[in-house]
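I need you to check the entry underneath: sequence plus fold tokens. Let me know what the token row says about the fold.

>
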Amino acid sequence: MFILDFDATCAAESFAAEYYIAENLKPSEQVLYLWTTPPTVMIGKYQNAYAEINLAFTERNGIALARRMSGGGAIYTDRGCIQYSMIKKGAGEIDFYPFTEPVAGFLRSLGLDAAVSGRNDICVGGKKISGSAQYMTGGYTVHHGSLLFDCDKDALEGSLNFDTYKIESKGIKSNRERVTNIRELLSDEMRDRFTDAISFINALIPELSCNADILRFTDEQKKEIFIIASKMFLPHETVFGSSRKFNYTKSLRTSGGKITLSLSVENGIINDAELSGNFFASENFAKISRMFIGCLFDIGENSDIIIRIKNICSENMLYGVTESDLINLFNIKQV
């Protein structure tokens, strides 16, 4: 077995490292890689980013976004979460147990009632502390899992989308399961031993590897990995383009009447928009609706959508409908 020694600065670089090992290095033995990320939301390959992520919250709090090459649900990670990757020769059917059971075994050795649960989780006392995902490439299986050691629960809850607006999508919705941090479940003695995620990683490594050799990338290999990260994992279209085509509908009661917004979005671009309701407009409502066609469906505070909303309100096109109303209609939360 090999243990990868690679200090990535973001999730995209770690995803690129996994991919590079499977596609280019093609090691004869399994590679173990333990890593952490700055605050990041990772979504599965087949998910709709707009349905899963509270984009206003992530932008406001500087939380990065990344899309995995594996399926599964959206997760939040930060320096209090531990990511573990295992790259193994052979690409057959997806099978999580050989990778998750050793991790559960380590947790049991710490006095926790840990067990592999469902298709890809590890639970302690019925509470989820780990999820996993897999994909195959280059004749290898790439397994990666996340361990909630001491993550920011407020950021976890805020960054994933719990709003009630309707998005009809062909993407897979994440299961919203009850989660907890490992550190909260440890005895006082164990909490003193494991003060942070790094100390936990240092204890986990020998449990998952035996007589392993250290694997390090050369400077030239790192350059190739950074290129892969920039081309495959960092672009906006990687995170949002895979959301495919979906419809978005939301209604709101305002002092100017009820207003409903209906959008059709494809590859992150609004290709059809309609405002309807019992409001009054100084302009043809179809003209107002068309203002949003062609906009990137980016609901951040400095987006094209916000610019058009400000234009509509500055010219009083919708009687009694405020800028705040329209922002809420697009589900953009005020600071």
